[in-house]
Amino acid sequence: MDCGYDYKFVEIAPEHQIGLHTQAEWELSAVLCGSGERTLGRETAPFGPGDVVLVPPRFLHRWSFDPSSADTDGNIVNATLVFTTDWARGMSNIFPNLKSTIDRILELENAVVFSSPSSGRIAALMTTMSLLSSEEMAPRLIELLIMASESISFGTVTGTMPNLDPVAQKIKKVEVYAVCNFDRVITVGEMARLVGMNPSSFCSMFRRAKGVTFVTYLNQLRLRHAQHLLSSNPHEPISSVAYACGFQTVSHFNHLFSAAFSLSPSQWRSRQQTIGVAP
User: Fold this and answer.
1) What's phi and psi for 234, nearest 5 deg?
2) Is 171 helix (H, G, I), strand (E, B) or coil?
3) C-alpha span between 76 and 104 (Å, rounded)
4) How far apart are the first and last CA of the chain?
5) Whole-number pLDDT of residue 142
6) Is 15 exposed, middle or buried (0-12, 13-18, 19+ CB in 10 A)?
7) Is residue 187 packed enough to be buried (19+ CB in 10 Å), middle (13-18) or exposed (0-12)?
8) Tens digits of residue pLDDT in 87-137
9) How would residue 38 be classed by pLDDT, with cut points 50, 70 and 90?
10) What single DSSP character describes residue 198?
11) Can you give the C-alpha Rg of the chain in angstroms?
């Protein structure tokens, strides 16, 4: 996120949605397909399509999707804009007439759940942004900030923030990073640097907290995604599935998959097609 913001239009299986976590940036999220329970700070409430929430930095949050609410491809769909405080303040400097608009956002300490019709307008704009080039994105970002700022007073401020102990904060940071990057090489050293620890201390902390090593946790995450790809893409080569899940060799993928599920990837896929169920 070198430019200070990151827009994503995401279609993923419900079980791959990020769990309870915090982050250093602001997050504006619109649920376009899917329903379930949303956690903001200490408060949990149901949500459905059209749910639009603005989450401040370091604020605990999670969307837990009901698998039965997925689309015909087995995915839930959301659009998310993540941005830093520095980027928002920079926009104020570039466009001084936006200062009060942006300050209204940056002054928030709790999450805001937008109400209709504001939520519908925000969700519609965030959906169309998926079709734009980077050059076309800039004016829409300004429009989105203005729309969100003006809608704050009509939304519901919610979710007092619980205190997380330092270890829990580090584990959540690692989990979020792993979910977002499992499709590439991730090293223990990289994770240790992420949470400001040396590799040995990080490995000990992670194993005490999760009951498995980080490498085992990462491979479990990759294997769950592999199950989803094998089931939803019946003609995708096994090698493509392996590489898409972050495995560097097909033989290593086959070995870990067979050890975990007592079937090779191709056998597991054939069985799923025979019984007609997804994992």
Assistant:
1) -65, -20
2) helix
3) 31
4) 33
5) 92
6) middle
7) exposed
8) 999 988 898 899 999 999 998 888 999 998 999 999 999 999 989 888 888
9) very high
10) -
11) 20
Q: Any idea which of 105-119, 143-157, 171-185 has the lowest mean pLDDT?
A: 171-185
Distance CA 120, CA 51 (A): 9
pTM of the model: 0.63
Alpha helices in the chain (DSSP H): 85-94, 99-106, 118-128, 134-151, 166-181, 188-194, 199-210, 214-232, 238-244, 250-261, 265-275
Q: Is the pLDDT of residue 163 over 70?
A: no
Whole-angstrom distance, CA of residue 205 vs CA of residue 40: 26
Contact assessment for residue 121 and residue 52, using Cβ atoms and an 8 Å cutoff: no
What are residue 4's phi and psi, to 5 degrees?
95, -5
Other CB atoms within 10 A of residue 82 CB: 19
Q: Tokens in use for 222?
A: 């990759």
Closest CA to 79 of 128, 39, 46, 36: 128
The one-letter code for the residue type at 87 is: W
Place of tokens 């409430």: 45
Query: How high is the pLDDT of residue 22?
Result: 84
